[in-house]
Design goal:
The complex is a heterodimer of chains A (328) and B (198). Chain A is an alpha+beta fold and 328 residues long. Helices cover 36% and strands 24% of the residues of chain A. Classes of the chains: A alpha+beta (328), B alpha/beta (198).
């Protein structure tokens, strides 16, 4: 659901909680975390959606990578997963469902986790995703909050999947772009998460439906600092800029923009096609990592040497103006 | 004049409706109705990318975008026989990073020289296409890069095979030309008057 609408629906509802809830609903985060012991906490998350690519096997992989990503963004390790399936039995052949789930299985296996079961309902359209449980040491949880002035911001996957997917629907994207973007979306954030554990990371989230700015805004929630980002340092899918200039921008990007625009100081000379990339809803996007300044370069070099080729430093945490995102 | 009523539609539907109208009717002038600001902006951007100039008028919640095809609009008439006196369209397809067989070091030198000399074809040179290991000529560090970039600067369309770049893991290193697919290459072969394979 668009940002804002969900807040409205949930506003004022009281959720049961106890002293072991380490990350719950009080502040936006990627997943919930529950302490089992002083050494172990449980990360729980769930995500599913309708197909974003035509190929069922790739759709399964992407949906699974997207769901697993929340565990990585919390600094954890996925352990178990359950399938969530909505399937239009009367319209689609069961072989399609089989391929979707095969995609999910392959990604869960690649993540080093196991599939324990799942639940399916008959639905008007195909939907697939996972509920994922992971482990993390309670002292090593990486929440969205924790930015420190001076931290550098690192992004591990290029932006623009929403725009490119829109162009694919409009028959504008070449087969090559279509394939490349499927590969990007199906890439696990596992390596990025493992490498990041070795550095002084203060906060982390994954970039998904709210777009880069939406997720940065969540990181800023309640923090007494601001952010400064430089668009030319952002990793962006080449074709996305081109398609954005053609107006191939999904409705979600505009919703994200109208919800967060008031926090953003957009520098002169940033044209609308680049601006829309900043708000573009991402599917299975990369990790956005806030790391101590003196370790940022080493982190990025390490990520790249492990094959996280798009990793770049794109911004920093500044003391003031607090609560604002300056885009240069 | 072609009309598209995209009121009540959210992005990207108005852009897609506009695209469909342009493709089916190739209108000189067209009018697109939208009822929200993002759609207005995106349709205007799309029209500009297709070589149309547009103006917007707002009445209440409805925006009327009027567009006129400019001189830069893509060729929309069926491709006619080349008129008398039009230059021959030569497509050069480079399928190796090395010219000829026998000695690869010599072949690489010859290739640099070949690319450098290609401009002598003048305006008959219509497409330059790189496939297989030929794509290595378009990446950073290639001895041929500067000359290919010069050719591109003259307005020559340069196509580089995406599958090939991907195969050699060079997608990010390509410095010149448009990444292309087999359909574009086959279409170019069909349209060319002469195809030269290297």
């Amino acid at each position: 659901m668009p940002p804002g609408d969900l807040d409205k629906a949930l506003c004022g509802l009281e959720f049961p909680t106890d002293a072991n809830v380490l990350v719950g609903l009080s502040k936006a985060d990627d997943a919930g975390v529950y302490r089992i012991s002083d050494e172990l906490a449980l990360i729980q998350t769930v995500d599913f959606f309708t197909p974003i690519v035509d190929d069922p096997y790739w759709f399964g992989q992407i949906a699974a990578a997207n769901a697993l990503s929340d565990v990585y963004a919390m600094g954890g390790e996925p352990k178990t997963a359950m399938n969530l399936v909505g399937f239009p039995l009367k319209k689609m052949d069961l072989s399609i469902l089989r391929q979707v789930i095969q995609g999910g299985i392959d990604k869960v296996r690649e993540a080093g986790a196991v599939l324990l079961g799942g639940h399916s309902v008959e639905d008007d359209e195909l939907k697939y995703g996972l509920s994922v449980t992971g482990f993390v040491h309670p002292a090593r949880i990486l929440a969205k909050h924790g930015l420190k002035a001076g931290d550098r911001l690192v992004l591990t996957k290029p932006l623009g999947t929403g725009i490119v997917n829109t162009a694919i629907k409009g028959n504008l994207a070449s087969d090559e772009v279509t394939r490349r973007i499927a590969v990007l979306m199906a890439t696990l954030n596992r390596t990025a998460a493992e490498v990041m554990q070795k550095y002084p990371v203060h906060a982390c989230t994954d970039i998904t439906g709210f777009g880069l700015i939406g997720h940065l805004a969540e990181m800023l929630e309640g923090a007494e600092c601001g952010l400064k980002i430089v668009v030319e340092n952002l990793p962006v899918i080449d074709a996305a800029l081109e398609f954005s200039a053609m107006g191939m921008v999904p409705g979600g990007a505009h919703k994200n923009r109208s919800f967060r625009e008031h926090m953003v100081d957009l520098g002169e000379g940033i044209d609308p096609s680049m601006r829309d990339i900043l708000y573009d809803p991402q599917t299975s996007g990369g990790l956005c990592i806030a790391v101590a300044a003196d370790s940022a370069r080493a982190l990025v070099d390490h990520l790249q040497s492990e094959g996280v080729e798009y990793a770049t430093i794109f911004g920093e945490v500044v003391e003031s103006p607090a609560g604002r995102i300056q885009v240069a | 004049m072609s009309k598209v009523d995209a009121r009540g539609l959210a992005c990207p539907a108005p852009v897609l409706a506009t695209k469909a109208a342009i493709e089916s009717e190739h209108p000189e002038r067209m009018e697109v109705l939208v009822d929200n600001d993002p759609s207005r902006e995106n349709v205007a951007r799309f029209l500009a990318s297709q070589g149309y100039t547009s103006a917007v008028e707002q009445k209440g919640e409805v925006y009327t975008i009027t567009a006129t095809r400019g001189p830069d609009a893509p060729q929309t008439e069926p491709v006619a026989e080349a008129p008398e006196g039009a230059p021959t369209k030569i497509m050069v397809m480079v399928a190796s990073d090395c010219m000829g067989t026998g000695d690869d070091i010599l072949g690489a030198k010859l290739m640099i020289n070949f690319i450098k000399t290609l401009k002598e074809m003048g305006d008959e040179l219509w497409r330059l296409v790189f496939v297989n290991s030929g794509v290595k000529l378009t990446i950073d560090g290639a001895g041929t890069l500067a000359d290919i970039q010069d050719l591109e600067a003259t307005g020559l369309t340069i196509l580089v095979c995406g599958t090939c770049l991907d195969h050699f893991n060079l997608l990010e290193r390509k410095q010149v030309g448009q990444t292309t697919n087999m359909l574009d290459i086959v279409t170019a072969m069909q349209l060319a008057d002469k195809v030269i394979n290297i």
